[in-house]
Write a structure and sequence with these properties.
Length: 161
């Protein structure tokens, strides 16, 4: 049983993403249950990067429904195209928001959130099946390094789920 992912905080952010993905592939192995896989990914990223909130919203009809996450309570459903998560779903593209208070239509699920990144998870058919949402209690916490590292993880997830 794995209790944590031992990744040194002395590594660069890009190196930590690479290490996390390598470890996730080993931990998940042949597991096929999507809830279990998303839960492990959430826990690993939350632990390694110390986010305020780390989790998934899963496509359910015309909305995103809360999936596995770690952090404070969150919104249960988000409509297509609404907020940062809904925009990531609609555009099929990563959204980096340095200041959530400046994002038109931002949905406040937790008032401590200051910045966020949302990366869509594309299934084998090319459709968005979920979005991976990370929030920070600091402004401008996410950048292109995060976008690339999270994109590699969500690409792997899209192939795995």
């Amino acid at each position: 049983m794995v209790e944590s992912i031992p990744i040194s905080s002395d590594l660069s952010k890009a190196e930590r993403y690479n290490q996390v993905l390598s470890q996730l592939k080993i931990i998940v192995g042949a597991e096929t249950n999507s809830t279990a896989i998303l839960s492990i990914v959430t826990g690993a990223l939350h632990e390694v990067f110390n986010n305020l909130w780390t989790g998934f919203y899963i496509v359910d009809g015309d909305s995103l429904v809360l999936g596995p996450y770690q952090g404070p309570l969150a919104c249960l459903r988000i409509a297509y195209g609404k907020g940062v998560c809904g925009l990531a779903w609609e555009s099929k593209s990563t959204q980096i928001v340095d200041d959530v208070n400046q994002f038109p239509g931002h949905i406040v699920c937790n008032s401590e959130s200051k910045s966020e990144i949302v990366v869509p998870v594309l299934g084998k058919n090319g459709r968005v099946i979920a979005v991976f949402d990370l929030d920070s209690d600091k402004f401008a916490s996410y950048d292109e390094v995060d976008a690339k590292g999270l994109s590699q993880i969500t690409t792997w997830l899209g192939e795995k789920l």
